[in-house]
Amino acid sequence: MVAAPAPLAPSGPASAAKDEGLRERKKRATRRALRLAGLELVAERGLDAVTTEEIAAAAGVSPRTFFNYFTGKEDALVGNDPELLPRLLAGLAARPVDEPVLDSLRAVFVAYADDVVVDRDLWRLRMRVVEQNPSLRAAMLGATAELERRLAAAVAERLGMDPTEHPYPRLAANLAVAAARASLLHVGTGRPGRELAEVLAESFDAIAAGLPAPG
After folding, report:
1. pTM attached to this predicted model
2. Residue 186 in contact with residue 193, Cβ under 8 Å?
3. End of a domain among 40, 56, 72?
4. CA–CA separation, 153 and 164 (whole Å)
5. Could you give the 3-state DSSP secondary structure of residue 212?
6. CA neighbor of 82 nearest in space, from 27, 21, 138
């Protein structure tokens, strides 16, 4: 008897989207495994006693794979999510041109936060590692400064302003990043129960209201 032909693998946009979604989930899982391995090793031994090769080995990947995800040890420990800046810039560009800048920034940050599940255990470990290794604060500030710089340039372009002539674009970007950082730290290291998007929206609203003290 002639065997029946094997069914064709599904194809088309739905299949491609499913494959892409699977790849992205695998990438996120690998990135998390590397971050967690690095943080655990540094918490145990100290920053100077841990190499990228040891982090890769602890995560079960090759050193080459490590550098596919991070530029170095500090980036793995305290760097930004690589999806963050591209999504913020694309979201900002898609907002209505006549919308107030702070409203636009609020919308794009909250939209991003809606997709983020805060790994509280990882964040608590990260904060402990930073406290134990103060030199990591410079790496954190560097990552934040680049985010603020790129956002400020996007705000300036949106407003048709020269950022060298007025502080507003940088001020708006810095406020937005500060709101995001404070909200993430609150959700990541505080008592569980609230989602990042909710806290972030409240933070932006507080800035817009002039930052009144909570009642």
Report:
1. 0.82
2. no
3. 72
4. 10
5. coil
6. 27
Tokens of 179: 């709101």
Q: What is the CATH number of the domain that holds 156?
A: 1.10.357.10
The pair of structure tokens assigned to 144 is: 């934040």
| Co-location of 145 and 106 in the same domain | yes
The answer to the question of residue 2 being in a domain is no
Q: Are residues 185 and 107 in the same domain?
A: yes
Can you give the residue range of the structural domain that contains 26?
21-72
Q: Each residue of 31-59: pLDDT tens digit?
A: 999 999 999 999 999 999 999 999 999 99
Domain count, the chain: 2
Structure tokens at 166: 């007025």
The pLDDT tens digits for 112-167 are 999 888 888 899 999 999 999 999 999 988 889 999 999 999 999 999 998 888 99
Confidence band for 7, pLDDT divided at 50, 70 and 90: very low
The whole-angstrom separation of Cα 63 and Cα 56 is 5
Q: For residue 188, what are the contacts with CB-CB under 8 A and spacing of at least 6?
A: 118, 119, 120, 123, 124, 127
Per the listing, tokens 């990260």 go with 126
DSSP string, 83-107: THHHHHHHHHHHS-TTS-HHHHHHH
Q: Which three-class secondary structure string do you get for 150-180?
A: HHHHHHHHHHCCCCCCCCHHHHHHHHHHHHH
Judge if 96 and 192 occupy the same domain.
yes
- Residue-level pLDDT at 2: 35
Distances in Å between the alpha carbon of 10 and those of 13, 82, 109, 184?
Answer: 10, 30, 35, 40
Tell me which residue has tokens 């391995």: 37
Q: Is 155 within the bounds of a domain? A: yes
